[in-house]
Design brief:
The protein is mostly helical. The chain has six helices and no strands. Helix 5 packs antiparallel against helix 6.
Length: 122
């Protein structure tokens, strides 16, 4: 379960917390949201990953503020380069792969032709 995806100042603050304190904070938040059942079902196993502490991941992604997309990344607003477009293409690719694994080749071809999944040739 992904309990937190935090960036910026709060991400850095959470990364600076001792591991046990951070895990307890997340557990308390889960209990607050889902009730005591979260405490009852918590096994004590976790995997804490703070990207801010990983020397190989520093500055590996960008999070532009309001207006910066328009100013610095004009192609961000073009449909072929949009995050939504990428997500849809990924969904189509996964659907085609699933259809092929199920032996539904004609359906996979149809989906590819209809949605122009240009990265796949069946």
């Amino acid at each position: 379960m992904l309990a937190s995806y935090t960036s910026g100042d709060f991400g850095i603050r959470f990364a600076s917390w001792p591991e046990r304190e951070h895990v307890q904070y997340v557990l308390n938040a889960m209990i607050e949201i889902h009730g005591e059942v979260a405490r009852e079902q918590y096994t004590g196993k976790y995997n804490r990953k703070c990207w801010a502490l990983d020397p190989l991941e520093s500055a590996s992604w960008a999070s532009p503020s309001i207006g910066m997309h328009k100013l610095y990344i004009p192609t961000y607003f073009e449909t072929h380069n949009n995050l939504v477009s990428s997500a849809l293409e990924s969904g189509i690719r996964g659907s085609v792969q699933l259809l092929l694994e199920l032996g539904l080749v004609d359906e996979a071809k149809s989906l590819t032709e209809k949605f122009m999944a240009r990265w796949i040739s069946v």
